[in-house]
Amino acid sequence: MIKKCLFPVAGYGTRFLPATKAMPKEMLPVVNKPLVQYGVEESIEAGLIDIGMVTGRGKRAIADHFDMNYELEHQISGSAKEEYLTSIRNVMHKADFSFTRQVEMRGLGDAILNGKRLIGDEPFGVVLSDDLCLTNGEDEGVMAQMVKLYKQFRCSIVAIQEVPDDLIHKFGVIDGEQIKDGLYQVNNMVEKPALEDAPSNLAIIGRYILTPDIFDIIEDTPPGKNGEVQITDALMTQAKNGCVLAYKFKGRRFDCGSVEGFVEATNYVFENIYQAG
Prior knowledge:
Elements: E1 4-8, E2 29-30, E3 33-34, H1 35-45, E4 50-55, H2 60-65, H3 70-76, H4 86-94, E5 96-101, H5 108-114, H6 116-119, E6 124-127, E7 131-134, H7 142-153, E8 156-162, E9 172-180, E10 183-191, E11 202-210, H8 214-219, H9 231-241, E12 244-248, E13 252-255, H10 259-274
Parallel strand pairs: 1-4, 1-6, 4-5, 8-12
Antiparallel strand pairs: 2-3, 6-11, 7-13, 8-11, 9-10, 10-12
């Protein structure tokens, strides 16, 4: 019913320069795994095993990561080091990968539109690798939580969380009517508003489930904030003409698009996941 997930991974990662001058920001390791692998594992857990990557120039390392490295495999075959490849082998075994390029960086909406040739006429998930979302052992991953909601409501869904006032301007922010605890029907969305213009403190983070009509809507959406094609503008059109839900997910999100958030995530994963085994 819903098997595909899109990963927009074409961005430059300028906040991590010079580290990202030659290395994709999505390949930055949180302890021993790159950011993009955490996202793919979350997608697979949700049953979204057809992975589409919208890449750009200088991003070949992402495709290489999800492919065989015969020389490395040969060198460590039979040694204790081979166990370090277990997680990526599992990912490669369970998922199928396809790639396309975003030639010009024109915003998240445009990146998603570039993924149309990989998705076709199907509902799909979207994961932004910058947002590392982790749950405890009792809760399913964020995408799995959202897939359950999609099966019930069959409409586009965005993940949200409450953010402090001084961070409001960094997010798309929703206004909505609460349907039940943690679930809202969206009435309005504003991309990166000033605090006084924000309709709430409920911010959209990098997890979406989108219905395929979003592609036609994006095509008709003019550039918005910063001259970019904003997915929030397209979703607002979809909300007016139908239904978009916002879900306050269970779990913890780390903003790994910032140095501070990346360091926080690394410390958390090392202390709570890596050392725990």
